[in-house]
Structures are given as structure tokens and as C-alpha cells.
Design a protein that fits this description.
Blueprint (H helix, E strand, L loop, with lengths): L1 H15 L1 H18 L18 H13 L18
Length: 84
């Protein structure tokens, strides 16, 4: 029954303070809109690796020899838990 009290509180706040709720939502939207330009999405997994580790250096040598290519990760091993 605790959720009903919280739900009633939220409904009461929204209905009695609609202007303040609208102002807060507009302010939060403006803050997120301002910060969205600092988000950078990169789908190249190699850009997440440091430039001085051995696997990155080997991959760079392969790219120099064969050019750009697509790659796929394959994992082989035991499962961590037994799922039936």
C-alpha cells in the first residue's frame, strides 16, 4: 500500500502545482538539450582501446597490410552458470 500513498502524492503535486512542474520540466529539457552536444557515439570498438597496447598495435599493422576491413569477435569457453 506504500505505492498508493506515493502515487496519490505525485498526482496531488501535479494537479496543484502544474505551473511549477511545467517550469521544472522545461528547465530539465533545456539542461539536457545543452548537454547533448557533448555526447559522442562511436561504433568503432578499436577507438576505445589505448593506442599503446599490443593488440591495438597488431591490429594497426594488419590494417596497414590489408586495408580497412570488418571484424567480428568470437568467444569460446565455459559458461559461468548452468542454465537448464
Amino acid at each position: 500500500m506504500q505505492t498508493n500513498k506515493f502515487k496519490d502524492f505525485v498526482i496531488h503535486q501535479v494537479l496543484s502545482n502544474s505551473r511549477m512542474i511545467t517550469a521544472v520540466m522545461l528547465l530539465l529539457t533545456a539542461i539536457f538539450a545543452y548537454g547533448i552536444r557533448y555526447i559522442f557515439l562511436d561504433d568503432n570498438i578499436m577507438n576505445f582501446l589505448p593506442k599503446d597496447i599490443e593488440s591495438r598495435l597488431i591490429w594497426d599493422e594488419i590494417k596497414e597490410d590489408f586495408g580497412e576491413t570488418d571484424f567480428m569477435f568470437v568467444a569460446i569457453g565455459n559458461t559461468l552458470c548452468n542454465v537448464h
